[in-house]
Every structure is written in structure tokens, then in C-alpha cells.
Specification:
By secondary structure, the protein is an alpha+beta fold. 56% of the residues lie in helices and 12% in strands. Strands 1-3-2 form a 3-stranded antiparallel beta sheet. The protein has a two-stranded antiparallel sheet with strand order 4-5.
Length: 129
């Protein structure tokens, strides 16, 4: 439920919208979960009956994600891109002859890139929604 609220551009949802999107059998289940979030102080109920995200907290697996616009991406994605770019640049410099290839530099680049991409994909697959 909380993940769904985070994904909404306005961070505002109605009961029926939640019921349909999350596949609940009745609106009362959506109300129950929204009220639990309200009791925790994470959402606020508007007069129109809609619920608005009040506070963004990082709990559980959400600690490993960060917001980019309305998307939540794994934090490791940035490290994966950084190490892959550094490795690609090093390989280009080696091929052009500007740098003498080093076995240790190549292994460091390959292992670190592979490890960060592995963690990024693992987190992406485990996201709750």
C-alpha cells in the first residue's frame, strides 16, 4: 500500500483507486490499510475522502531505493553505472594505446561492475510492487 502511494505522482489516492490497482476484493480492505497508514502518521485523510502521503519514510527494503521523479530506483544502480563507465573508458584507452593494460585494473573493474550490477538486479527483482 505504502509503495503504491509513493509511486503516485501527486501522492494522493482514493479508496476505489487503491482497491482496483492492488486487486483487493472490497473497498473496506483498502480503507483498513489506509487507516493503518493514517494511524502511523504516514498519510492524511482529506475531506474529499482521498488519502495523501504525509511523510516519506525509508523502512525495510525501501532503504535501498531512492526517488527519481515518480520512479523508485535501487541505489546500487548509480554505482553500477559509474564502475561500468570507468571500465569502458579504461578499455577504450587500452585499445587506443594511450594506456598500458594492467591485469589488476581490468580485474578490479570487471569484478566491481559485476558485483554492483548483480546487487542492482537483485534489489530490482525484490521490490514489493
Amino acid at each position: 500500500m505504502y509503495w503504491y502511494l509513493l509511486q503516485q505522482p501527486t501522492h494522493m489516492v482514493g479508496i476505489r483507486q487503491v482497491q482496483r490497482a492492488l486487486g483487493f476484493s472490497s473497498p473496506s480492505i483498502a480503507v483498513h490499510h489506509l487507516e493503518k497508514l493514517h494511524d502511523l502518521g504516514l498519510v492524511r485523510k482529506k475531506r474529499t475522502g482521498e488519502y495523501v502521503l504525509e511523510e516519506e519514510v525509508k523502512v525495510g527494503i525501501l532503504r535501498f531505493f531512492m526517488r527519481m521523479g515518480h520512479f523508485l530506483v535501487p541505489r546500487y544502480l548509480f554505482y553500477s553505472i559509474l564502475f561500468s563507465t570507468m571500465l569502458a573508458t579504461y578499455l577504450v584507452l587500452c585499445v587506443t594505446g594511450l594506456v598500458v593494460p594492467s591485469f589488476y585494473a581490468l580485474m578490479f573493474g570487471l569484478i566491481s561492475s559485476a558485483a554492483f550490477w548483480f546487487e542492482t538486479v537483485k534489489l530490482w527483482r525484490s521490490k514489493p510492487f
